[in-house]
Every structure is written in C-alpha cells, then in structure tokens.
User: Fold this.
Amino acid sequence: MAIDRRREAVGGGPGRQPPAAEENGSLPPGDAAASAPLGGRAGPGGGGDIQPLPAPHPTSGGPHPSSSSAAAPSLLLLDYDGSVLPFLGGLGGGYQKTLVLLTWIPALFIGFSQFSDSFLLDQPNFWCRGAGKGTELAEVTATGRWGAGDVANWTSPPTTSFSTVAWGAAGDLSNSSGSDGGDTPPLPSPPDKGDNASNCDCHAWDYGIRTGLVQNVVSKWDLVCDNAWKVHIAKFSLLVGLIFGYLITGCIADWVGRRPVLLFSITFILVFGLTVALSVNVTMFSTLRFFEGFCLAGIILTLYALRIELCPPGKRFMITMVASFVAMAGRFLMPGLAALCRDWQVLQALIICPFLLMLLYWSIFPESLRWLMATQQFESAKKLILHFTQKNCMSPESDIKGVMPELEKELSRRPKKVCIVKVVGTRNLWKNIVVLCVNSLTGYGIHHCFARSMMGHEVKVPLLENFYADYYTVASIALASCLAMCVVVRFLGRRGGLLLFMILTALASLLQLGLLNLIGKYSQHPDSGMSDSVKDKFSIAFSIVGMFASHAVGSLSVFFCAEITPTVIRCGGLGLVLASAGFGMLTAPIIELHNQKGYFLHHIIFACCTLICIICILLLPESRDQSLPENISNGEHYTRQPLLPHKKGEQPLLLTNAELKDYSGLHDAAAAGDGLPENATANGMKAM
Assistant:
C-alpha cells in the first residue's frame, strides 16, 4: 500500500525526481553506494542479516557518474574504520593507547569541578549570634544542654536535594560569620517547631557547615534569609555556563578542530577558575563561575569526541565507560578533598590547579585524524598519519589497502567543513538527534525528582540523617547505574539498553505518583493494616530505582548521540544533547528557588515525557559494532533496523532492486542501481 501511494504521488511525468530515502532503510540505489563503507558488521540485535554492501560494478550501458560524484573523494579514505584505522594498528598501537590514557586522566579533574557546588554552596544550618555570647557559652559548657531561649534562636535552611539536619563534630562543622570558630558553642538539636522569622531579624549569624569546610560561600557573605536566593543564582551560573559552552564550543570544534578548542578551554578555565577563589562578593563569584562552566564544557565535549574518534567500533563503549568511572572516582574523593582544604577558597584553587598539567597537551596531543579525513584536509591528515606510523614504528609495507597512494591523489582538495545547522535539511539525522535530546533532558530532569523524593524521608530513615550519607548514597546509585550499563549494553545493544532503562524510569515514576497515593488513602483507615511507614518505604524504593535508571538514560543518550552523529558535525550534535542534559539539571535549582513550589507538577510532566521517549526510542538505529558515519550523507542513511533479528524465512520489510522493478512508478530509481546485486538493499545484502 505504501508503494502504491508513493507511485500515485510521484506520477509518470518525465520530469519527476527519484524517491527520497525512506525511514525503514530503503533508499535510491545510487545513494546506497555512497554509504557502502558503513554497512558492515551488524551486531546482535541490530539486524544480524545485514552484510557489507559491495561497490557497484560499472557497465557500459549504465548511467555515467555526474560531475559531483566524480569530485567526491575516494571511498577508501572515507571508510576510516575499515581502512585507515586498521592501517594505523587500531587501538593496538602504542601511540593510540597513550592518547586514550590522556583523555582519561582529566576526567578526574572534571569530576571534582562538576560536583564542587555541593560543597561550595551547601546551605548550612544557622542561628542568631546573641549579644551575651560569653555567658551563654559558659552555661552551655556547664550544663551540657541548651535552654529554651537558645533553642528559639535556631533555624535551618530550606530543603534542598541534600538537606539534612544532623551534623558531625562541633569542631569541624561549627562556624560564625565574621569571627573565628573557636568560641562557637556546640550545635543544638533542631526543635520540632520554631519561629524562623526571629532569626532573620539578626545582623550576624553562626553557621553549622556540614561539608567538612570551616567556611563556604554561604557563610562568607551571609547568604541566608533575604539573601538566600543568591545561592540558587550561584548554582545557576555554573549550569548555564555549561549549557552555553556545550552549544558554542561544539559548533567551533566542528569548524576549527577539536584540539584548538581543547587548548583554548584549558587556558581559560585556569584563568577564570583561579579568579573565582579571589572573589570579593557573590556577584563576582557567580559571574566567574559562569565562565568557568563555559570552559569546562569545552573540555568535557572535546575529550568525549576525541575518545570516540580514536577507538575502533568494538572498543568505543568500554573506553567511554572507563572515563565515566574515573570521573566517578573524583566524585567519591570530593568530600575528603573538602575536609583536607577546610576553606572554600583553598578548595576551589585545588580543584582548578590540576588543569595546569593539561597545558602539556599543547605539544603532545594531536588533532583528530578522523575529523581531518572527514573534512578532506588531506595534507594535514598525511602528516599526522606519518606521525602515527613513526610513533608506532610501523613500516610502509603494512599499508595493504593502499591508503597512502590514495591520499597522495587527493592532496589538492580544498577542505569541506560543515556546521550543525546543516542537519535541519536532513530527513532522518535531525530526528535521531532530537529524540536523544529529549531522552537526555528527561533522564537528568526526572533524576532530581527521585532524589528529592528520597531525601524527603530523611527524618524517618536513620541512614539518610547526615550530609555524607546523602552524598554517598546518590553517588553509589550512580556507580551502580554505570556498572549495570556495561552489562545491559553488552547484551541488548545501545537502543535496547536505552529502551530498558527508560521503561524502568517510567515505571518507577508512575508507581511513585499513582500507587503511593492509593496506599496513602488506605493507610488513613484504622483497619487497613497500613501505616505511613509502609508508604515511605515504597517511596524510597521507587526513588532508588528511578535514580538508578534515569542516570543510565542520560549517560547512554549522550553516548548514543556521539555514535550516530557524523564526524563532520559530531561535536555540534554532542553539544545539543549535553545542553539538553544541562537544562534537565537546571530544573533542580529552579524548584529550590521557588521553595519547592510546583514540584509535583514538575514530576508529572517528566513522567509523561518518559512515555513519549519509550515510543521515540524505537525510531533510533542500532549503532553497536557499526562504523561511525563520517559525513552527513552517511548519517542520513544510518537508519533504524529491527529491534530483533529476522527469523529464518521471514520476509524483511526492505525491497530489493529486483522487487522495485516490478513497480512501474519506480523504474527510474531502480535503473540507477542496475550495477548492484539483485538482493542488495540500502543497509546491505538481504538474506535469501
């Protein structure tokens, strides 16, 4: 029926054009040849019957190639994973291993920077500093407890995703604004009810900092009461800087190269990051944090792209996950670093100083060879290939496929660079990127909903009664999510794994919103046998499952985008997905700024988005063990395949050229591929 409708729409006029590529993978045979290098090695679950598509055999009576086809570079040079990378030794070369290691090391520093807000901007407990402080101290020391008047001067900050009420040792956690911490009394236990307005009438406060620091940004500039909103603006600044950085540096990296953007970002993160530690007010702090986030985004994005472009198809996911575990190590080490530094300015300087080591990358880290080949900068590519062979001690005889002779013929070509805006004119590529952007936004956005729901039961759950338990609980869930990703993606592939984790996220969200309300209604009846503790336990269980799955959704969406986006616009596509993740994380400080108003609606919206994402994921292609697309044409033909492989004898939904000729309305399109085998399809050879 679809073929009949297409034939009627095209008509039989002599001036009609060949049909465009279809979403199920069928495309004009003339275009199929251009994507031939990308058809190889379909992994399990990604269409096991797909085989590499052979190059068309020229015939004397066939149509002659157009001038644009004649001007196209050799397919051998565009098949980077099939010809250039094996010539360089794949990932077995010693120089390639060194470069991969150099992309792993900065992940530790990135982990420090990404999670520094939890320590620099943590809202401590605070109370008014009384006039007769010396007398009160003597009374507290003598009696060992606080009187009613002392307790009335205590207040706690608004609830955040890590808001707890238990503190550690008084010597480590107690601090005063404008005075040393030596004469600060022990911290009282929080009262059940209190008048917080009386504490905001003070002009000076004492602080109970829970993160191991003696002083942080909040206690430095008294960002409490009427000034508490400035804390959320300071949290905005880093995230907004990351969002703008992903979008802008991604486009620049596709135009001028990965290496210049990386070196530029390293240089300026040192300037802005160290200047943050010298801030004289919160306005200066927030402004500089924006630029620090901008430069940090450039480092994250370029290292991610370089890591992907260095690896052969079978090693890409493993190499990326190792970098994620290194960043996770930085997250786990951050509390110890804060306890060691004691002051927020020292901590900020210590986080940024390791980036000084990356200045050495100026001389030891080359440009991405894959990007040079994809943008037809063959002169620079030739020099870099010779550099690789020299570092790996390779002989010219190892060039079995003749990459260097083909490269010599193409040296006179002009570079052909592409901007991410070109994706608007595509049919399949923009759809894939938009789907992954929505997945990334949903995964990171709903993650905060689950975290807030779990931390909301901290008073009733002893495990969650201090800052470190909160911090390490969330970090451990993220670590478990990464470990599960390694197993799931190995067996189900990228698309199957993303679909599984999104289904888990949707189930956890819907059960938390629906089932818990039902349990709450039944618990109000005295003979129901249910109590509020049952509801709380279910809520915590659903929150943990939701945080576990949503973290995997966000991380896998970013990796998926890096694989299906063509090399010529890979950084731009990555920038879009990472910026979407930033928007998802930005919802957390927005909700906190409004004192948690609208949280329930926020959760409902993201729960609905999970259901939409489950449907959209089925439209994505499977990229496991597939060559990376190099140009937009390759990416456009990188279309979806069946989620499960065809059973033996089952008729696939792709028509061969012989079957296309049976339809009079498609004779012209079929004639363009007469040089191809009869059982050839757009994505490869159909099993007979």
Observations:
- The mean pLDDT is 74.
- Strands lie at 125-128, 154-155, 174-176, 205-208, 680-681, 684-685.
- DSSP finds 28 helices and six strands in the chain.
- The first helix runs from residue 2 to 10.
